[in-house]
Amino acid sequence: MTKQTHAFQAEVQQILHLVTHSLYSNKEIFLRELISNASDACDKLRYEALAKPELLEDAPDLAIHVAYDAEARTLTISDNGIGMSEAEAAANLGTIAKSGTREFMAALESDQKKDANLIGQFGVGFYSGFIVADRITVESRRAGLPANHGVRWASDGTGEYELEAITRAGRGTDVILHLREDEAEFLSSWKLRSIIGKYSDHIALPVLMQAETWDTEKSAYVKGEGWDPVNKAAALWTRPKSEITEAEYVAFYEQISHDSQPPLAYTHNRVEGRSEYTQLLYIPAKAPFDLWNRDSRGGVKLYVKRVFIMDDAEALMPVYLRFVKGVIDSADLPLNVSRELLQESRDVRAIREGSTKRVLAMLEGLADSDSDDDKAKYQTFWNGFGAVLKEGLGEDFQNQERLAKLLRFASTHADEGVSLAGYVSRMKEGQDTLYYITADSLAAAKSSPQLEVFRKKGIEVLLLTDRVDEWMLSHLHEFEGHALQSVAKGAVDLGTLQDEAEKQQAEAASEALKPLLERLKTTLAGRAKDVRVTTRLVDSPACVVVDDGAMSAHLARLLKQAGQGQPGDASLPILEINPEHALVKRLESDARFDDLANILLDGALLAEGGQLEDPAAHVARVNRVLLG
Length: 628
Prior knowledge:
Helices cover 36% and strands 20% of the residues. By secondary structure, the chain is an alpha+beta fold. A 9-stranded mixed β-sheet has the order 1-6-5-4-7-3-2-8-9, with helices on one face. A 5-stranded mixed β-sheet has the order 10-11-14-12-13, with helices on both faces. A 5-stranded mixed β-sheet has the order 15-17-16-19-18.
């Protein structure tokens, strides 16, 4: 192959522009990303060599070398891993197959600090080299291909890259950075060793640099013949917990997650019994950009006897815990385990159950702690991941009770942090039901007319505003023997919390207003399923509710937005009126009955967060009433 010039994919050009013009915070992160890529290449070779040992050729010992040439102004990161063919070099370095490119660019453009840590989170770490280099050359040969099938890739990070065939004796990849003039600090052995020690100490492969000795005549370090290991080169999770510092746990998390913030919590355990495995699991402090993509996993890496098997072992963690990061190293699984076998393995099920319980225990430790710091950490977790954790109520029946205790809501008593257990402890004497309301926003929930009688009597109501809440409630019907009841479903029945006088007054009002109710039903036919007197209202003239067991108005709106609206009478609300309100009393004698009745229903629908089918008709009615 003669030298060929190719244009970068459009998304790569945009990323390179942002990298070279915007990233100036923590530039040293580029070395972590390139060493991490080299480690991945070695892991892939080790895995493929399980089936094809000949891929190791005559170099079975895997390692990463970091070398610099001050005169040539180059920094080279080399590995003897899987390497790349010509097609793979073009595909891996000239295009971006991974989704999330747009999100990366949006995050980078909106980040005032222009933090280079962002680049690793979106799978485009190779391009971080252009933070410090004005040209990058990559020389590689894929394991198993002959020496004359090597490839050289080169680019100055603008719009194009060059590809040409080369002869390369050894497999693997050299990434050669041609540093800018103002980046001479990265041509120092001391600087490079300190960066490797900071970010890559826990890489399970040796990261080597050329040995140096002090020359007293030159007053400088002189390179020797051998290579020295710079990192510990031991998998962190295999070491005893007593020998690992907090800083090392955090550094390892940052390495595997590309997250610049320390985790909220972590657990490191060796499990023995029916299945033997080691787990090192972390709970992040902030949500990743693809949290809501249920098909996107990448949190837990699977190793078998310290041999890397796969990055995104989704079978090891339930979907609702997809935010968990970490490593699981099994002593029982076969080295050639596939994704299909993972789904069927009894050992994997045991690992999944054990790891799920460990994660829930970590969360319980934060949620139930007496420490204000831990409570604040749990609230941070809940704000970022609470909506995803709620998915578990319908997916993990075995742990449903534990998950229910971890739930946190807003309520009429507090804007956040209300647990179901806390609600139960504050129940009124004689109250045996947990009341809640679902709405599109916290403001809409707080201002709902359905809450009026509950506020009057000081009864706490949970305010649920996540889109997943309706689905969650279809699986969570009670807590510690107390039923959950929507305040917007069915006729309000406060049981012993409502005195006999109130009940008799409501019954008398309902009897006295029978003619009015029948007239309202006739006028609002096709818009309201029924009209009745209520005791739930104090200040408002009317509200809309649905029958017990029926779909809530909030869920109906969500389904309608998704194109799944309910047909016919099933989607119609029930109008409840306040017999003590002046507007209701005025209805009976007003000549504009039809307009006032429809305005009453329109107002109730709007107050509940709904939308009017015919806003123009509503405006026309209001105008007629205003004009008298």
